[in-house]
Amino acid sequence: MWAVLEPVIRAGETFTWDRDTPEDDARERWFKEPPGQAFVAVTPDGVVIGTGELHPNQGGPGSHVANAGYMVHGDHGGKGVARALCTYSLEAARSAGFRAMQFNAVVESNVRAVAAWQGMGFEILATIPEAFHHPALGYVGLHVMYRRL
Questions:
Q1: Residue 132 exposed, middle or buried by CB count within 10 Å (0-12, 13-18, 19+)
Q2: CA separation (Å) from 33 to 28, 55, 139?
Q3: Distance separating alpha carbons of residues 65 and 53, to the nearest angstrom
């Protein structure tokens, strides 16, 4: 999975992680305790081309809302891998008893992801202006996106 995670983290264009996050820290952050989970998308010959993670967005009285994230290897972007990972996470969240899913930080310049999530029923609840420092575009907004399950 590191072959998928590392280039996305190092690019610094879509995740709010430090660009120098080491592999052990990334794995610790990505793998979740139940009802959370990490999962992968693979080619027919077993090569990991994408990964996702699912967990409660908050604890206690907010734990009925899920949160998830997805990373796709750059060679496979735009081929529906992230959409497939999201579809899986929505089904897994529903099966685990979550009532909704919320994305806390969708980078507004990641227009392909924003469009995909909107196409899957997520709505933008708010945009936090200049909340993300993109390495090429400077300060851009972060969307909070939500959908009921």
A1: buried
A2: 11, 8, 33
A3: 14
